[in-house]
Amino acid sequence: MGNTRGAVRIVVAVVGVVVVAAYAALLAVNALVLDPLAAVPEATLPQIHERIEAAGMSVAGDVRGVVVVASIGVALAIAAAVVGLAARLPATVVAVMHLGVLAAGAPATFQSGFWLGMDVADTFPTGGGAHTIWAGVLYLTSLAAFVAIPVVLAVTAVRTRNTQRQRQLAAG
To answer: In the 8-state DSSP scheme, what is residue 133?
Structure first.
């Protein structure tokens, strides 16, 4: 039984990191590639960058900002996995930690849209909001993770209570 729990914990930790990394990758690709191209469909990405730079703004700074935000999420997911495995926390606790990182992705998605997105809006005749469906996908993923946290905790509490009752009935 202990080996099974350890294997499940490892799988949950690895899957958690992979899911957060995929979220972070989509966040970065959307903010740095997909959204600018959707905002200015008549231009290529290099043309967009060239005009932004010519207007006196820093595309490199925008890229750094988005990459740092995305990297923080991945670092948090790795930390959750390492701490969860090292402390031999239950798989549900490791899952909840990763769900928390995903839920925190909503403000990260919002912030990441500002850097290059605002430079595009200031340089081209377009609004500063999201121009693709992918920001919505990220927000919905964060919302689903946020909702899943109490669900996972409630299911775990019910299972734990039922297991304790079964043990009590078996003992006496």
So the answer is: S
Rounded to two decimals, the pTM is 0.92
* Under 8 Å between Cβ of 101 and 84: no
Task: Show the tokens assigned to 156.
Answer: 């775990």
Compute how many other C-beta atoms are within 10 angstroms of the C-beta atom of residue 161: 10
Residue whose C-alpha is closest to residue 94's, from 8, 23, 22: 8
For residue 27, what is the enclosing H or E element?
A: helix 2-29
Where do runs of H (alpha helix) occur along 56-133?
Answer: 59-86, 91-103, 105-112, 115-123
Residue 126 one-letter amino acid: T
Distance of CA 62 to the CA centre of its chain: 19
pLDDT one digit per residue (tens) for the chain, 172 residues: 557 888 999 999 999 999 999 999 999 999 999 999 999 999 999 999 999 999 999 999 999 999 999 999 999 999 999 999 999 999 999 999 999 999 999 999 999 999 999 999 999 988 878 999 999 999 999 999 999 999 999 999 999 999 999 988 898 7
- What is the dihedral sign for C-alpha 58, 61, 21, 149? negative
- CA quadruple 138, 111, 35, 121: dihedral sign: positive
Burial of 17 (0-12, 13-18, 19+ CB in 10 A): buried
